[in-house]
Amino acid sequence: MFHEVKIFDKKGKVKKVLSSKNLSAEYWSSFFNNPLTEAKQKGKGRGQKPQKSADCDDENLE
Predict the structure, then answer these.
(1) What pTM value is reported for the model?
(2) DSSP secondary structure string, 20-41?
(3) How far apart are alpha carbons 24 and 1 in whole angstroms?
(4) Is 15 helix (H, G, I), strand (E, B) or coil?
(5) How far is CA 24 from CA 15, 34, 59, in A?
(6) Closest by alpha carbon to 25, among 13, 33, 36?
(7) What are phi and psi of 39, to 5 degrees?
(8) N or C: which end of the chain has fewer CB within 10 A?
(9) Separation CA 45–CA 35 (nearest Å)
(10) According to the model, what pLDDT value does residue 5 have?
């Protein structure tokens, strides 16, 4: 949810008003066109290294 944004000039008069609907549409458009999102969907980018599972039972602590 986005709230309406008013942009003022130096004199304090409203220069531009961005509606919540316009802000929401712009945000979601940029979200889906993000290069990182595209790379993740295509399987590109660095993969995560598998983590070694340490056996931390009391019996194995020496």
Answers:
(1) 0.46
(2) HHHHHHHHHHHHHT-HHHHHHH
(3) 7
(4) strand
(5) 20, 15, 55
(6) 33
(7) -65, -40
(8) C
(9) 11
(10) 94
User: What is the C-alpha separation between 21 and 3, in angstroms, rounded?
Assistant: 9
CA 22 to CA 6: how far, in whole Å? 13
Domain ranges of the chain: 1-44
24: amino acid identity, one letter: S
Looking up tokens 């889906």 gives: 32
Neighbours of 56 (CB within 10 A): 7
- Average pLDDT, 10 consecutive residues per value, the chain (62 residues): 93 95 90 68 61 64 58
What's the pLDDT score for residue 12?
95
